[in-house]
Amino acid sequence: MARILAVLPDLLFGSKVQAMVANVGHEVAVVSSEADARERVAGNDLLIVDLCSDEIDGIGLVETLKSEGQLDGMRVLAFFRHTEVEVRTSALAAGFDLVVPRSRMAREGAALVDGLLAADSSTRL
Questions:
Q1: Model's pTM, two decimal places?
Q2: pLDDT(86) > 60
Q3: Cα dist from 122 to 15, 74, 116, 119, whole Å
Q4: What pLDDT, in 10s, does the model give residues 30-44?
Q5: CATH 3.40.50.2300 fits 3-118, yes or no
Q6: Any long-range contacts for 68-71 (C-beta under 8 Å, 24+ apart)?
């Protein structure tokens, strides 16, 4: 069982992600703000970030956490609007491990989490 922190301001979609990932045996904490994410990031194995939200700057959050060393050894998964391909490009450049369209996250979230956690930390998906 992995510990996962999910930054998901959209409560409905956040509940869906939390349930699907918890159903495969992981402990999932959901927060809706960057401040809460900063407070709770320590001790997790994976960070999930919503890049669709206008309420948070997910890329900026991850860049800051990485520069502070708070994501050392932690994998980062994010999802974006399929129409905003530049967001995916920016997230990958910022060091996210896996960035998928929101629709794929909705369909395959648990499998994506398990695959990312199982992947060797030196391998990019």
A1: 0.92
A2: yes
A3: 31, 12, 11, 8
A4: 999 999 999 999 999
A5: yes
A6: 70/38, 70/41, 70/42, 71/41, 71/47
